[in-house]
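Last lecture ended with a question: if I hand you only a sequence, what can you say about the shape of the protein? Today we answer it with a concrete record. The protein is histidine kinase. Below, first the input exactly as provided, then the predicted structure, then a couple of comments.
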Amino acid sequence: MRIKFLIFLCLITFIGFAQSKEDDIDTLAIELAFQEQDSLKVETSLKLIKSLYDNGSYDRALQYVIESEKLSNALNYKDAQAKITYYKSLIYDKKGDYINAISGFSKSKDLFKALNDTINIAKVNNSIGLLEVKKGNYKKGLQHTLVAVKHLENTTLYGELNSAYTNLANTYNYLSETDKAISYYTKALDVQKLLNNTTDEVTTNFKLAELYALKKEYRKAIEVYENMLNSDSLSREDRAHLYPKLGGEYLKFNDFENASKYLIKGYNLNIKAKNQEDFLIVLNHLSELNINKKRLVIAEKQLQKSGALAKRLNNNKELLRHYMLMKNLDSIKKRFDRAYIWQQKYYELNTAILKQQNKLSTQIATSTINDNSLSSFDSLLNEAEPKPVVKPIENNYTNNDNYDKLKLLFYGVLAALAVVSTFLIFMYLKRNNSLKYTQELEEKNVKIELQNQAFLEQTKHLESVNNVKDKLFSIVSHDLKDSLSSITGFIELLRDGSLSREEFENLIPELSENASNASLLLFNLLNWSKSQMQSLEPKPTLFDVQEVFEEKVNIIENRLESKGINITDHSLRDFAYADRSMIEIVVQNLLANALKFSKKGDTITVSNHISNGTCIISVADTGVGISKENMEKLFKNNSFTTIGTNNEKGTGLGLSICKELVELNNGKIWVESTLGVGSTFYVQLPKTRPTKD
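The predicted structure:
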């Protein structure tokens, strides 16, 4: 027998030597071929089997197992028998042979128990746990792995402990027991750091972060991702997977700056690597970011891409997110009919996913092995698994009476099963009808809500238009009527000859003032009503600010002289990018306001300068100033006016128009004032075309 064994091992050795590229395997094979002592051959065979198993050469390892098993049995070498049986089971597991693998693990476990080898018992339990979980027997798998962990934690077998912790964490994660999964992933991470196993560390960190996000502990998820980024061992592929997730976590805090930074990095990496799954996540997160930033055109294009990609990849999770984002986008755009359709698609897909999860939960529950057919968990922990005692069944079927009783019992059980089945079917149908009714009710509620939103928007618009109409009639009937009536009165007196030439000349300044007020009033009124009707469209160009000041100052020179007010022009030649005609309206209104609230001897100063790449123009006066209470009323949609220093009237719309026109040109307007000292109005305008999203 020894000669046959030696010839067989030599044959395998030479074949393996020609094919293998691993020096240690070749060395062990040569050493085995020339050993004479049987016990040493078994020991060397075990080392060679382990090396081949670790190298993935399972068929070759199995050949050595078979021959070594024969030799160890012949020698009655118990320790070797247990280890060879264990490795044979590991190989069967790798080859997908569940029956032989689980049978071999049980046999090796019994052999290790006889040797009182608790460490190897723990390793076998860990292997059984991994195999049972892989087959869907989660309860039994968890029991064996927990037993393994209890013993492995007191050893330095960090590789086995890492495997056990990871198996427990994955199983609890699959069973949606999030806290336990986090606990074991954290333990596995500590062991992986001891092993310097960077590959497993990356995988575990990803799962930890995802679980924190699932628990809505977004800060912890961000912390895990940020720590991963600081690691030098993170590959380009890992970064491509990480950036979209980290950007998504920042998005939940409305931290748009960090979200944008990481999402753009993720976009660039994944579009180059053609990683479609992560690219889909990036697209959905970017579209959500752009919706929040009101960049709706870009968001809609990105959502069109993400929707098509999610359907092609059959990624229901991201497709669900796509439907919700499309609903939000169309709601913002007031396309409520389309928003309702997206909402309906969301509910349909979400219901289908929940049904699938319920079905899976049922499968998991039914796949767990009956407690009565297993040794209890406590007995597993104590490693004293009693073997079931099988009692022989007495042959009583020859007795007709007993046979009739059994037959009657059988039909009774069948009847009971029929009743229970009917009841369960009835309950199932009733539950389905209830779910269907609830879903229809929810859909109707959503539709009604969307219709109510549309109705409220329409009502607000009608109220706004009605307010505009009321203001127009109020101003026309009061201020414009007064100014025109005054002018008409002068004309009637002149026509009737009731005024002498000297009296007429004395009244000319007042007549001119009334005509100017009526003109400015009508000018502001028309522009204000246009802006309220949302029909103003700026046509920006580059123009010289100094020219605008010169033109508008010339228009009010006569009024400045008649009121005894000085004007100082500190304007410089500089350009702004805006609609010139609109800015002329703004400057004219600001100069008219400064003139209105200045007294004899006061000074109006116009100037402009550059600040942070923008053009800032200002109109300052040393007039009566504005109180803090009145400053809060400026630039509002509601009209607010006060009497000028010469009892000049106004519409209270001038500054509202100025604000509308400045903001239409991507600018800002504000005022600084001290009561009794004077006021300065500032307008900031861009110098170039603003970049569009």
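Comments.
1. The longest strand covers residues 603-611.
2. The two ends are 84 Å apart (CA to CA).
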